[in-house]
């Protein structure tokens, strides 16, 4: 086995910690995700038990709230739609080792741009509004993503910093428009725009709030899977993520690829913002996102950037959010879901570090 060994005293045996190659650890990724969720449940359960509440009853209540009725399932999928689109966006960036944590801001500017279509383009044919809102959301989110990519490629500014700071700018812009020029004068001082007209709203599926934005997310996942598995561009992205220098030597323009990927990454988050205002809230309002862009990071890591895994992880995280509302009935705050999400991310990061190593027990005196 390749890698550096660290010898630890162990009596008759020695414990050898060896660094494994990437190929040796790929198959363990799914187990890291599964164990991270299990450990997060145990870890969160300790905090629940401290409050004198049975953790099992809490998790049962969360599961019933998310999946115990058609309305619960519908609400879980409603939450999963923006998580899937934002998670897919950051997965695109992470594929080439660009750490976009700006999906929250890209989501918000996408929602703002989609709303701007409804505010400033009156009198258009009814059928034209939804396509224009979709395009506006995607373009705005993509530009927001590029604003983090350009400093990275031209000035070596870490995209973690720029994408994070852009989140705050987007949120301040949101506050400005909903408390200021776009505020509904008949909204009883509520910080939000007037409700969209019916033709500006995404159609619903069934009697609940689930809307056709679900198909946007699933279609985007299918396209992502085809790109990464069947297209030459997907091969270039994988090469760039694994070995940027080899990608340069093979003639791939690293700058061009980073720009393009961040444009798509931000654009997908912007589409999520458009789907939220058009399909769920039917207006732009204060705190339009409960943190979808940040939770999308957990979605991407939990799925290991796998397209089909993204569907599962987005539904799981959507269920955690919806289940968090249910636990208020037994005396816990809805922020319980945030503790669970944070715990999952904590154990995912730890697991990613540890899965690159393997323990061996060897007899003293030889290997």
Note the topology:
Blueprint (H helix, E strand, L loop, with lengths): L4 E6 L2 E7 L2 H4 L3 H22 L4 H13 L2 H26 L7 H18 L8 H27 L3 H21 L33 H18 L1 H11 L1 H6 L4 H28 L10 H12 L3 H20 L9 H19 L2 E7 L4
Antiparallel strand pairs: 1-2, 2-3
Helix pairs in contact: 2-3, 2-14, 3-4, 3-13, 4-8, 4-11, 4-12, 4-13, 5-6, 5-7, 5-11, 5-12, 6-7, 6-11, 8-9, 8-13, 12-13, 12-14, 13-14
Structure description:
The chain crosses the membrane at residues 21-50, 77-94, 101-121, 127-148, 160-179, 199-227, 258-278, 284-303, 310-330. Keywords: Cell membrane, Membrane, Transmembrane, Transmembrane helix. InterPro entries: ABC_transp_permease. This is Inner-membrane translocator. The chain is mainly alpha-helical. 67% of the residues lie in helices and 5% in strands. The protein contains 14 helices and 3 strands. The protein has helices at 22-25, 29-50, 55-67, 70-95, 103-120, 129-155, 159-179, 213-230, 232-242, 244-249, 254-281, 292-303, 307-326, 336-354; strands at residues 5-10, 13-19, 357-363. Strands 1-2-3 form a 3-stranded antiparallel sheet, with no helix packed on it. Strand 1 (5-10) and strand 2 (13-19) form a beta hairpin. Helix 5 (103-120) crosses helix 11.
Largest sheet composition: 3 strands, antiparallel
Unreliable sequence segments: none
> What's the gyration radius in Å?
23 Å
Instruction: Give the strand line-up of the largest sheet.
Output: 1-2-3
The residue-averaged pLDDT reads: 90
**Total helix count?**
14
Helix and strand pattern:
EEHHHHHHHHHHHHHHE
What structural class should be given to the helix and strand makeup?
Answer: mainly alpha
Q: Identify the overall geometry.
A: globular
Number of strands: 3
The CA-CA distance between the termini, in Å, is 11 Å
Helical content class: 55-70%
Strand content: 5-15%
Pfam families: BPD_transp_2 (PF02653)
GO cellular component, one term: plasma membrane
GO molecular function, one term: transmembrane transporter activity
Membrane topology: Multi-pass membrane protein
């Amino acid at each position: 086995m390749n890698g550096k060994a660290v010898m630890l005293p162990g009596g008759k045996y020695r414990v050898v910690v060896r660094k494994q190659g990437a190929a040796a650890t790929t198959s363990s990724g799914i187990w890291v995700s599964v164990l991270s969720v299990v450990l997060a449940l145990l870890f969160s359960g300790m905090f629940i038990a401290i409050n004198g509440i049975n953790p099992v009853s809490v998790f049962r209540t969360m599961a019933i709230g998310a999946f115990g009725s058609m309305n619960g399932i519908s609400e879980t999928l409603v939450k999963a739609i923006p998580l899937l689109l934002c998670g897919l966006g950051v997965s695109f960036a992470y594929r080439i080792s660009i750490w976009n944590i700006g999906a929250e801001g890209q989501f918000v500017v996408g929602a703002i741009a989609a709303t701007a279509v409804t505010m400033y383009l009156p009198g258009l044919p009814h059928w034209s509004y939804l396509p224009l809102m979709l395009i506006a959301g995607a373009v705005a989110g993509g530009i927001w993503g590029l604003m983090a990519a350009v400093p990275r490629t031209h000035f070596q500014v870490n995209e973690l910093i720029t994408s994070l700071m852009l989140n705050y700018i987007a949120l301040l812009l949101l506050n400005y428009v909903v408390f200021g020029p776009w505020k509904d004068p008949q909204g009883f001082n509520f910080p939000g725009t007037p409700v969209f007209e019916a033709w500006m709203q995404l159609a619903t599926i069934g009697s609940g709030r689930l809307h056709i934005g679900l198909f946007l997310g699933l279609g985007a996942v299918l396209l992502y899977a085809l790109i990464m598995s069947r297209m030459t561009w997907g091969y270039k992205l994988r090469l760039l993520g694994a070995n940027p220098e080899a990608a340069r030597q093979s003639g791939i323009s690293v700058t061009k690829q980073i720009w393009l990927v961040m444009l798509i990454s931000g654009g997908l988050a912007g589409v999520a913002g458009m789907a939220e205002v058009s399909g769920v809230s039917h207006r732009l309002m204060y705190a339009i996102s409960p943190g979808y862009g940040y939770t999308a990071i957990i979605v991407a890591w939990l799925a290991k950037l796998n397209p089909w895994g993204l569907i599962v992880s987005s539904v799981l995280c959507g269920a955690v959010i919806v289940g968090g509302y249910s636990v208020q009935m037994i005396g816990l705050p809805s922020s319980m879901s945030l503790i669970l999400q944070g715990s999952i991310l904590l154990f995912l990061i730890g697991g990613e570090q540890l899965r690159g190593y393997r323990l061996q027990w060897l007899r003293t005196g030889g290997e």
